[in-house]
């Protein structure tokens, strides 16, 4: 009797153990992993997008898991509004100054700096033209902004009347003290267009009059001020034309009577001049 009871208990225990193993191996949620192996840990990572690399034996079934992080993104429709024409990408990086329309007007009148639209709105073409103008006349920074310095220089150049200079025959250097501009004429024809200058400040005003170049030197030493004066052309005592040694557009200062020029202009004037060249200075610098 004891033997029979022991046999029955052994059979019952075997049945319970068999049913328990079947519940883990054939879990319908494993989507047929097969091989009697438990579902791989990588399944949960793949579904949540935590892992983009499936592990060996990972189940594959009709259900589509969420794309992994390494999958290429799906195209989406942008909701960012398109910029209007005046603020196009080409113009955004070029600041607009308070004298935009005036500078456009003067540059259009002067010509030679590219396409300019006189409408008071900055554009890529306007920016390019203003930058070219600023670089030509040594205005810093040359960022295309129509600020006060750019406005003043453009106005002075555009309103210079070359015929006010009584040039006569031969080569004449003309200096308009009022507009602070310089140009050269030969037999009544402009051979060097008006450019910017800086003449004597208060107390050292450059005197108006008609003179002749009396001395020339590629590098003249100034004894009283202890500085080299490149491309020196003297026309009135210790006064002459020469390349500037400071920032030309600093309106708070001036020369001690000389006619300061940018490098390019000093070189060009040197090429045109000689001993005896006529010099006509007229007008008066504001504030002197």
Automatic annotation (TrEMBL):
CDD domains from the UniProt entry: YkuD_like
UniProt keyword Manganese present: no
Biased composition (Pro residues): 56-75
GO biological process terms on file: cell wall organization; peptidoglycan-protein cross-linking; regulation of cell shape
PROSITE patterns: LD_TPASE (PS52029), PROKAR_LIPOPROTEIN (PS51257)
Region annotation Disordered: where it falls in the sequence: 31-97
Residue numbers annotated as active site: 242, 258
Stated name of the protein: Putative peptidoglycan binding domain-containing protein
């Amino acid at each position: 009797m004891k033997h029979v009871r022991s046999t029955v208990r052994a059979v019952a225990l075997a049945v319970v153990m068999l049913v328990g193993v079947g519940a883990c191996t054939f879990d319908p949620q494993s989507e047929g992993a097969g091989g009697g192996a438990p579902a791989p840990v990588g399944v949960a990572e793949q579904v949540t997008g935590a892992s983009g690399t499936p592990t060996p034996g990972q189940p594959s079934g009709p259900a589509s898991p969420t794309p992994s992080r390494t999958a290429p993104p799906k195209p989406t429709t942008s909701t960012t509004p398109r910029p209007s024409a005046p603020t196009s990408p080409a113009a955004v990086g070029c600041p607009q100054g308070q004298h935009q329309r005036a500078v456009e007007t003067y540059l259009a009148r002067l010509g030679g700096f590219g396409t300019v639209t006189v409408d008071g709105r900055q554009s890529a073409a306007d920016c390019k033209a203003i930058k070219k103008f600023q670089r030509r006349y040594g205005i810093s920074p040359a960022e295309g902004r129509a600020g006060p310095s750019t406005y003043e220089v453009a106005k002075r150049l555009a309103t210079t009347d070359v015929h006010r200079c009584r040039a006569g025959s031969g080569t004449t250097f003309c200096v308009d003290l009022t507009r602070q501009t310089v140009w050269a004429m030969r037999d009544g024809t402009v051979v060097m267009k008006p450019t910017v200058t800086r003449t004597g400040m208060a107390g050292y005003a450059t005197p108006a009059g008609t003179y002749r170049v009396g001395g020339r030197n590629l590098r003249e030493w100034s004894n009283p001020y202890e500085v080299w004066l490149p491309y020196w052309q003297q026309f009135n005592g210790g006064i002459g034309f020469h390349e500037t040694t400071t920032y030309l557009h600093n309106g708070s200062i001036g020369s001690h009577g000389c006619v300061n020029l940018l490098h390019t202009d000093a070189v060009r004037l040197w090429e045109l001049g000689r001993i005896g060249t006529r010099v006509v200075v007229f007008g008066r610098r504001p504030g002197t």
